[in-house]
């Protein structure tokens, strides 16, 4: 019988210790988060803290018996919905108009709303979203399952990107969208994807299989 792993923890290469990744939507942290992370790192002698590509902290090298106590002490949510891989994993966002001098759209605000709306939605596979506040695309919007990219004229929506083993540049499916229009289209795409994708089929392979025109026709009508 396979070993039961604690909820919200990822078994590591040594097959003994675990990593946990607290949720930090759009990569924003407070002093309180940092203090709690520092406190559990000392208390439970966590050997490694690694910043991930998804703008999250991975706490690595945790003993199995400590996992639940660490979650309790942190008071933060796991980076993905408890007990499932098949959901929104993260929304990353560049600083956008909040602080960046090139920003033309509020990528942090947009990413926060997207995270609030779609967290916990059951999906065919894991989904990662990248939001950029201008066409320079620091939010990696073309290589995420869903990319949202700000231009002066509005938001561009991109689907089916991946930076993984079989990389794929996402397809632009709509441009010059208002915030509300972009969110509505993301919802339509995720609903369509949930129904028509096979289990664990990432959006990049879904787009390869169906073709962007079929998906556009279904969700833009
Ligand atoms: S994508 Fe544009 S707004 Fe965002 S960090 Fe890069 S330069 Fe700044």
Concise overview:
Helix content is 31%, strand content 21%. By secondary structure, it is α+β, with helices and mostly antiparallel strands. The chain folds into two domains: 65 residues, Ribosomal Protein S8, Chain: A, domain 1, CATH 3.30.1370; 133 residues, 2-Layer Sandwich (Sulfite Reductase Hemoprotein, domain 1).
Describe the model.
The protein is an alpha+beta fold. The chain folds into two domains: 10-74, Ribosomal Protein S8, Chain: A, domain 1, CATH 3.30.1370; 88-220, Sulfite Reductase Hemoprotein, domain 1. Helices cover 31% and strands 21% of the residues. It has helices at residues 31-43, 67-74, 107-118, 179-196, 203-210, 212-220; strands at 10-11, 18-20, 48-51, 57-62, 88-93, 127-132, 146-151, 154-159, 171-177. A five-stranded mixed sheet has the order 5-6-7-8-9. A four-stranded antiparallel sheet has the order 1-2-4-3, with no helix packed on it. Helix 4 packs across helix 6 (212-220). It is globular and about 55 Å long. Iron/sulfur cluster (SF4) is lined by residues 94-96, 100, 102-103, 107, 132-134, 136-139. Iron/sulfur cluster binds at residues 94-96, 100, 102-103, 107, 132-134, 136-139.
